[in-house]
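Student: Please help interpret what follows.
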Amino acid sequence: MSKIKITVNGNSVEIEENSTINDFIKERNVTGKMFAVEKNLEIINKDRYDSEVINEGDSLEIVGFFGGG
């Protein structure tokens, strides 16, 4: 497989072509249930993570939420 370049939280990253958001999350060991993924300025519902393919030039923002006080 070939690699593609995307932007993740402002940083240039190379990933495998035809990766889904779920593939990316697993590869990068993103854990927890309290995070959101935005792809090209659109928040992606978790039920789409398995089917949403990341393409060359896409921009992802991954934001985690946590409580405290």
User: Anything to note?
Assistant: The first strand starts at residue 3 and ends at 8. Residues 21-27 form the longest helix (7 residues).
